[in-house]
Amino acid sequence: MEVTHLCFGASYFLALLGELGRQFRPEKGFRYLVIFSGCAGLLAHTIFLGVHQPSPAKPYGSLLLLTWVLAVFYLYGAVQKQPRPWALFILPLILIFVAISFAFFGEGASFGSWFSGESFWGQLHGILLELAAVGITLAFLASVMYLFQVQRLKKKKILSGRLKLLSLERLEIIQRRCLDISFPLLTAGVLIGGIRGVVEIFPKANWATPKIVGTVLLWIIVGLLVYLRHAANVSPKRLAFTTIIAFVLLFFAMVTAHPFVLEGK
């Protein structure tokens, strides 16, 4: 039986339902449901990646790889005795990415392309950008939780609410660390991609493509966020909104076609 998007997508959806029950009924057996569903989804996801080996340069490939890392991060929290507050934020994002990757899957899908026709520097370029994408996505999730927590504080729902989130201070730390790690990875990835484009593909290169422009803008905004976080007196709320903008740019860059990748690669 072939593993499809539906296999791990349905498992992640079942895990989301279990997490909803776990937040409100922690004494029930929802923990076992989310562990089973999360493990089943991650296993099917891993098998799918191993069989198809989607190219990170393709939109569906980059989204599936990013989603796999997010699923690992989620499963780490799912096995804990106490429900993790980020579960109800990360699982919807995982489901959205799975659905979007499925929409792109039939368009120019290339199989077994992780190591075929790619140089070492091309692979390193893709890995660095993918790792940076993980950090930016986690910073985005921390920012969303921060803004959500701010609204709960304003409405004084912290004590009465069942959903337990991290403190504002903790969310700020997570956001800062994720951005601090992502920026050098993104910088190295952009530099390697730019040098490789100049050296190997310059005569045929079109540098005004949406993916390149979006990635450069993303690098500028993430760099600005790091600067504002450490050197300027900017409110955490504004930084959270700017991080969300950075994530939107990241998503835009991931779903646009790579201009330097030939079809079938």
Compute the separation of the termini in Å: 26 Å
Count the E strands: 0
> In terms of per-residue confidence, which ranges show pLDDT below 50 for 5 or more consecutive residues?
none
Order of helices and strands: HHHHHHHH
Tally of individual domains:
2
Strand content: under 5%
Principal-axes geometry comes out as: flat
Quaternary status: single chain
Mean pLDDT: 83
Largest sheet: none
Tally of DSSP helical segments: 8
If you compute it from the alpha carbons, what radius of gyration comes out, rounded to the nearest whole angstrom?
Answer: 19 Å
Class inferred from helices and paired strands: mainly alpha
Helix content: over 70%
Structure description:
With 265 residues, this protein is an all-alpha fold. The chain is built from 8 helices and no strands. Helix 1 (5-24) runs antiparallel to helix 2 (30-52), helix 2 (30-52) runs antiparallel to helix 3 (59-78) and helix 3 (59-78) crosses helix 5 (120-154). It is flat.
In short:
The protein has 265 residues and is mostly helical.
Blueprint of the fold:
Blueprint: H1 5-24, H2 30-52, H3 59-78, H4 87-105, H5 120-154, H6 168-201, H7 210-231, H8 236-255
Helix pairs in contact: 1-2, 1-4, 2-3, 3-4, 3-5, 5-6, 5-8, 6-7, 7-8
